[in-house]
UniProtKB/TrEMBL annotation:
Glycosyltransferase subfamily 4-like N-terminal domain mapped to chain residues: 17-166
Keyword annotations: Membrane, Transferase, Transmembrane, Transmembrane helix
Single GO term (MF): glycosyltransferase activity
Stretches that traverse the bilayer: 76-99
Lineage summary: Bacteria, Pseudomonadati, Bacteroidota, Sphingobacteriia, Sphingobacteriales
Protein name in UniProt: Glycosyltransferase
Length: 354
């Protein structure tokens, strides 16, 4: 009888972002496939409370590192020693660096998963110097793979496994009198909400509303900027939502102003729900919107161009927007459906070449 394989996941936190959602989806799938799975969150952040999890899935949350560095280190080493993982799957930069250090002490195969196309300067040198410790690197977009390998930031053995998306059943899109945009993204540096707010201010003569779903991270500047630009009537900050995608059901279109992405889960979810897209012309987004022909792209950081693309979308007939939305949905069904993506991960985990 074959021994049950043990998989350890490392993640910076269990915030409900695109990367963490994909990690949890994969972990649940592996448990259902008979693997022993343990997730370690490097921070005590859990935004998946109330989420239905299999009883055999173990999740450990470390404490805040500022005051518990030694305790956390001992706990992490203890988990590795006791669990004895066959494979460690590390999602995102800081977790990848932790996993590389652990590999110097423990024997396991390391799959490092990069979920964005750029890396902050403070991580570059350490990331490059420890790159040889990865057995394989998984990217969620071809653009990310090209970026990291061409700059010598990762080994040239990377593979692309896209984000997996559950495509919902077709439903009639409600049509209100006010055009309703939806943006799903936490207020992080790479989402560039300032450009979106400026674009909205250029269009405030029009009747529309932008519903923003995402954690404000206790920041006061978004509300302050909205007030200063006089766009209170056009922007609704909904904050963190456990079921963020439910906001897409009543959307006329989806907008995202990011300056850096891997393969944005929010856009994939919007496309799966049949929403036409306006987003920035950056690598990870371009890979989706252009071949699907499901929307318009604008230059990153350019509020005037973003406003122009938003206006173009609002000027389309409802029928034209529905057609674009359906093209995006068909593209996701063909390339990003959950079963295909989970099968790709399973093949990699069981590959004798890593």
């Amino acid at each position: 009888m074959a021994r049950i394989k043990k998989i350890l996941f490392l993640t910076p936190s269990m915030s409900k972002g695109g990367a963490e959602t994909q990690l949890l989806k994969l972990a649940i799938y592996l448990v259902s496939a008979g693997y022993r799975v343990h997730i370690v969150s490097l921070k005590p952040i859990n935004e998946f409370e109330g989420f239905s999890l299999p009883p055999d899935l173990q999740i450990t949350y470390l404490q805040e590192w500022k005051y518990n560095g030694l305790v956390n280190t001992r706990k992490l080493l203890g988990i590795c020693a006791a669990f004895k993982p066959d494979v460690v799957l590390a999602f995102m930069f800081i977790a990848i660096l932790f996993a590389r250090v652990l590999k110097m002490r423990f024997s396991f195969r390391l799959i490092s998963s990069i979920r964005i196309s750029t890396i902050q300067t403070k991580w570059k040198l350490l990331f490059r110097l420890t790159a040889m410790l990865d057995d394989v690197v998984v990217y969620n977009s071809q653009a990310s793979k090209l970026c990291f390998e061409s700059r010598g930031l990762a080994r040239h053995n990377g593979v692309v496994i896209h984000n997996g998306i559950s495509v919902p059943a077709q439903c009639e899109r409600p049509r209100g009198q006010v055009f309703r945009w939806v943006c799903i993204a936490h207020l992080r540096w790479n989402k560039d909400y300032k450009t979106l707010f400026k674009a909205i201010s250029l269009l405030k003569h029009r009747s529309f509303r932008v519903c923003i779903v995402g954690d404000l991270d206790k920041s006061s500047w978004p509300r302050q900027m909205i007030a200063e630009l006089g766009i209170d009537a056009h922007v609704e900050l909904l904050g963190f939502q456990q079921e963020a995608v439910s906001a897409l059901k009543g959307a006329d279109a989806f907008v995202l102003s990011s300056i850096s992405e891997g393969m944005p889960n929010a856009i994939l979810e919007a496309m799966a729900h049949g929403c036409p897209i306006v987003a920035t012309d950056i690598a990870g987004i371009r890979e989706l919107v252009q071949p699907a022909a499901c929307g318009f792209l604008s230059a990153a950081g350019n509020e005037r161009q973003l406003a122009a693309r938003m206006e173009m979308m609002m000027q389309l007939s409802a029928g034209e927007r529905i057609r674009k939305g359906q093209q995006g949905r068909a593209f996701v069904e063909q390339h990003f459906e959950d079963k295909k993506v989970m099968a790709d991960w399973l093949r990699l985990i069981n590959s004798p070449s890593i």
